[in-house]
Specification:
By secondary structure, the chain is mainly alpha-helical. It contains 20 helices and six strands. The strands form three sheets. A two-stranded antiparallel ribbon has the order 1-2. A two-stranded parallel sheet has the order 3-4. A hairpin with a 2-residue loop joins strand 1 and strand 2. It binds arginine. The site of arginine has 10 residues, from helix 7.
Length: about 450
């Protein structure tokens, strides 16, 4: 028996029933559905649309239903069409006519829009908390590595000296933007659609602002057609999560490189690495690889959502039922990734000497040598050319800027003096980049205090 049996003379084809049903994935919104119905029923009673007695009966039975689902005594019926129908049918079976009054002045279209907004709001908060937690882990690691000199890269070629602290604080910047993007999405999700009805609102004298207040919404949707057909917040959330995963995938890629023998900049904790079934020597960075891999799936969900919404005429269309699996999957996977990635990163061993050794080998102080000549009066382009010749000479003779003799320097330019050794000393190269945003310890201290302030301001 379907709720709409009056209009139909045939029962639904079994395959269509299964095809149409969303209960297998929307049952996870049972708490939001019940909370929304409690607010709706309370409002109906308050506005005199149904008897206060009926309203009270509905509210108290909905609370029982929630408790029964949670203690396992009420199983969600996999044959039900969706979570909204399921809860309403249990309610009606339990309290009769009062239960049948709950859906007055409401449609599943505004009901589902409400539920998914409430669900996303809670998840956005949780995801943001995980981002802040990861930022805290980066903060701690950065604090320990303000003097850990390492090569920075462009084109994956050794470029200029940095510190590990400065390096990972770049990821902190990305994650701070992710957190604030989540705040933005939250603001536009925090708008209450109930009362939009199927699409043209309702003739009953409902109080939408009362419902919004009870459910903790900041605002109420201002157009009933938009109220039921808007899924921008789902698209925005999936986009914000895609960008977040893109950041984690870049970070993961670095972790994978850094723990290879070729780099050997870090060691992963055994608890966050896996072995090989055949090669006894292997210690694999599976966690980072999986985070990198799952990025594709979060992008895939985003693409699915955008394509699902493309060119949909107003207002509600069943296509929109497809929003849930995609956004739920992105939410689940992002949360998993943030949690596991953070735990893995918190336990890495930073191999400072290896980083320092890599920094010494690739002429990453060449710019500093040229800058030294500029300070001695040469135009930058001339200084650049001389330094280039020095690099070629070093490669040929297996030397570095640190090991060239002063005579060798002088054979390339008479501007060189003993001071060149200070200029090409890697620690000095880093310390001299004290520009706002640079890698010098003082500048990194500033970045650390910005990060710390952000974490403090965004703690719950
Ligand atoms: N299960 C549906 C969804 O997730 C609920 C809304 C159904 N509305 C309708 N008119 N069939 O979108």
């Amino acid at each position: 028996m379907k709720m709409w049996d009056g209009r139909f003379s045939k029962t639904l084809d079994n395959r269509v029933n299964a095809f149409n049903s969303s209960i297998s994935f929307d049952s996870r919104m049972y708490a939001q559905d019940i909370e929304g119905s409690i607010a709706h029923a309370t409002m109906l009673g308050k506005c005199g649309i149904i008897d206060v007695e009926d309203s009270k009966k509905i509210v108290s039975e909905l609370k029982n239903i929630k408790a029964d689902i949670e203690n396992g005594s009420l199983a969600i019926d996999p044959e039900a069409e969706d979570i909204h129908m399921f809860i309403e049918s249990v309610l009606t079976a339990r309290i009769g006519d009062a239960g049948k009054r709950l859906h007055t002045a409401r449609s599943r279209n505004d009901q589902v829009a409400l539920d998914i907004r409430m669900y996303c709001k809670a998840e956005i908060k949780e995801i943001k908390e995980l981002v802040i937690n990861l930022l805290g882990i980066i903060y701690e690691t950065a604090k320990e590595n303000k003097d850990t000199v390492m090569p920075g890269y462009t084109h994956l070629q050794r470029a200029q000296p940095l510190t590990f602290a400065h390096y990972i604080l770049a990821y902190a910047q990305m994650l701070m933007r992710d957190a604030s993007r989540l705040d933005d999405v939250y603001r536009r999700t925090d708008v209450m659609p109930l009362g939009s009805g199927a699409l043209a609102s309702t003739t009953y004298p409902i109080d939408r602002h009362f419902v919004a207040e009870q459910l903790g919404f900041a605002d109420v949707t201002a157009n009933s057609i938009d109220g039921v057909s808007d899924r921008d917040f789902v698209l925005e959330l999936s986009s914000a999560l895609s960008i977040l995963m893109m950041h984690l995938s870049r970070f993961s890629e670095e972790i994978i490189l850094w723990c290879s023998s070729e780099y050997s900049f870090i060691d992963l904790d055994d608890a966050y690495s896996t072995g090989s079934s055949i090669m006894p020597q292997k210690k694999n960075p599976d966690v980072a690889e999986l985070v990198r891999g799952k990025t594709g799936r979060v992008y895939g969900n985003m693409t699915a959502l955008f394509t699902m919404m493309k060119a949909l005429p107003l207002a509600y269309n069943k296509d929109m039922q497809e929003d849930k699996e995609a956004i739920f999957d992105s939410i689940d996977n992002v949360k998993l990734c943030l949690e596991v990635f953070g735990a893995m990163f918190a336990t890495i061993t930073v191999k400072k000497e290896k980083m320092r050794a890599a920094a010494s080998g690739g002429f990453i102080n060449a710019t500093d040598c040229a800058d030294y000549l500029v300070r001695r009066g040469l135009p930058f382009r001339d200084a650049y050319k001389i330094t280039g010749k020095l690099v070629a000479y070093c490669i040929e003779t297996s030397k570095t800027f640190e090991t060239l003799t002063l005579d060798e320097y002088l054979s390339f330019s008479d501007k060189f003096e003993n001071g060149v050794y200070d200029a090409v000393n890697l620690e000095n190269c880093v310390a001299d980049r004290k520009v706002y945003g640079g890698p010098a310890p003082a500048s990194v201290d500033n970045q650390l205090s910005i990060l710390n302030g952000f974490i403090e301001n965004n703690k719950n």
